[in-house]
Amino acid sequence: MARRRNAGRILIMNQIGHRTSAIASKRPDAEYTPASGDIRALIEAKREGYLWRTDLTPDRVASVRQQLAAAEVAALPCPLLGVKTWLGRLAQFVTNAPAPEARSAQAAIFAEVCSDIPVGAWTPETRIAWTRQPDRNGYPVGSRWPAPGELYAHLRPFAEQIRSEVTGLREILAMAEQPREPELKRPDAQEMARAGALADAVIRELKAATAEGMNP
Questions:
Q1: Is 63 exposed, middle or buried (0-12, 13-18, 19+ CB in 10 A)?
Q2: What separation in angstroms does the CA of 144 have from each of 57, 98, 140?
Q3: Cα separation of 152 and 94, whole Å?
Q4: CB 107 within 8 A of CB 155
Q5: Phi-psi region for residue 86, left (φ > 0), alpha (ψ -120 to 50) or beta?
Q6: Helix intervals (H) in 26-123
Q7: How far apart are CA 120 and CA 124, in angstroms?
Q8: How many CB atoms lie under 10 A from the CB of residue 128?
């Protein structure tokens, strides 16, 4: 009986291990695409100060939540393995890439210099953007291996875009989650009559005061 329990535990632990490995091997930013269309328009409207609570329909709020969940994952720190993978693929596009062993050793330096560059900035899009840089003072920047500082300067705008998007989406959700102000209650007939009587009394007093002023 004890052997069966141990065998069952081992099987469960193996399954958990396989699932964890599968999750770890998946690119963390795979589900993230920068906000566009209606969501991007909402972020810009909030930033400019012309977004209203009535603009936030249930469908829009649901889309904002979904985009924020993906953006928050993309804003997480990039693991060293992600940096190594990005550099390894960049090596295929440049003419002076280091040998694999040297490249692997350099990855730790790149990761340290770019420690605040989130995982969502280490993408095929940013890699292609590096290769498409124009020549600088006659030097073919895009076709050469970057220095750590050069790569940081290249990736920083992409990182700032992700962080700015997260901030904007959180502000929109905070607006959507604010308690609604209670609607003004329409006065009933009795209240209307009371208000009318009060107004008539005020008018009579004004007329009386006016008449007294005209008759010394």
A1: middle
A2: 48, 11, 7
A3: 17
A4: no
A5: alpha
A6: 37-48, 58-74, 80-90, 100-113
A7: 10
A8: 12
Q: Quick check: helix, strand or coil at residue 139?
A: strand
Q: Is 158 in contact with 29 (CB distance < 8 Å)? A: no
> In the chain, how many H helices and how many E strands?
8, 0
Find tokens 């989130």 and name the residue.
Answer: 118
Both tokens of 87, joined, read 């550099």
pLDDT of residue 128: 95
For range 97-116, the mean pLDDT: 93
pLDDT tens per residue, range 119-146: 999 999 999 999 999 888 888 888 999 9
- Reply yes or no on whether the pLDDT at 26 is more than 80: no
Structural contact between residues 39 and 63, judged by C-beta atoms closer than 8 angstroms: yes
Q: What is the pTM of this model?
A: 0.68
Which residues touch 157 (CB under 8 Å, ≥6 apart)? none
Q: Which residue's entry shows tokens 């953006």?
A: 71
> Could you give the 3-state DSSP secondary structure of residue 79?
coil
Burial of 136-168, coded b for 16+ CB within 10 Å and e otherwise, reads: eeeeebbebbbeeeebbebbeebbebbbebbeb
